[in-house]
Write a structure and sequence with these properties.
The chain is of the alpha/beta class. It has one domain: TIM Barrel (Alpha-Beta Barrel), CATH 3.20.20.140. The protein has 17 helices and eight strands. Helix 9 links the parallel strand 4 and strand 5. Helix 5 packs parallel to helix 7. The structure holds adenine and zinc ion (ZN). Adenine binds next to loops. This is Adenine deaminase.
Length: 334
Amino acid sequence: MSLSTIIQKLPKAELHLHIEGSLTPELMWHLASKHSITLPYKSIEEIAAAYQFTNLQSFLDIYYAGAGVLIDEDDFYALMWAYFTRCHEDNVVHTEIMFDPQTHTARGIGFDVFMPGFLRAMKDAQKQYGISSYLIMSFLRHLPESDAFATLEAAKPYYSVIDAVGLDSSELGHPPSKFERVFREARALGFKIVAHAGEEGPPEYIWEALDLLNVDRIDHGVRCQEDEKLMAYINANQIPLTVCPLSNLKLCVVDDLAKHNILSLLDEGLMVTVNSDDPTYFGGFLNDNYIALCDALPVTEAHVKQLAINSFAASFLPDDIKQQHIAHIHSLTR
Ligand SMILES: Nc1ncnc2[nH]cnc12
Ligand SMILES: [Zn+2]
């Protein structure tokens, strides 16, 4: 059986996906027309052609502008439903979805608009496709910590349907230490904690995410390899890294996937997972990321199987459900 057939066949979880980063050029075009919004593009093809990035910030500028077409509850439903349709096609059976409230509240669109849209799509995905999903509310790190506190407060009516709190946006110059107090409060409220660290930022940011934010997972984390002690710590404690290969390539974190360190991290025993980050901006959903790795690196069937197992092991699912998914993978690969 070819690796791409195995990738397709294995049930997988996705743990690092920004819902705003799954907006297709087609849906952006449609919603702009629906709301009479003028885009700086003349066609759907022109939108797709604009997705050429030199670093994280050059992507974020386009990504935040693109989210401006999301106005009403149905838009947020359509956004999430389109993602679940792709999950179904890729055999993603569980997903932990990040959303950026501040991208919407800053435009006057509140939790009472986007949350019902998200939750309706999540319920329909469970019913129609059997896909389970969790929500990760992410704070934008280029904004002040006071803004993150206000967001945590505004989310209060939805605490029971939010599983984790995260940290994303422009990494350089905005270390995890800037958000130490708000994450302490989020943890006290019972949320799981994740943070982007070591994508563009140095290993010190990963240490801060671990020591000051008390994260359960590191998003990206690929720069951990620059610090031997950090690598040893992450390995010994099996801190999951949610790695996003095509994202790293598109944002020039690596200049060639053949030089990506995910396989060496996996071979050293780290709890690494494969994810798509912002699939419509980076040229591929989850299976495309697996396949791109297989094309660029000496990936074996055992690696693919381990990555699929890790995706559940590193998830926030209850232990018994994790074990059921992992047993299913073993039964398919025996
Ligand atoms: N790759 C990424 N890094 C930081 N913030 C993000 N927001 C969406 N995608 C991101
Ligand atoms: Zn991300």
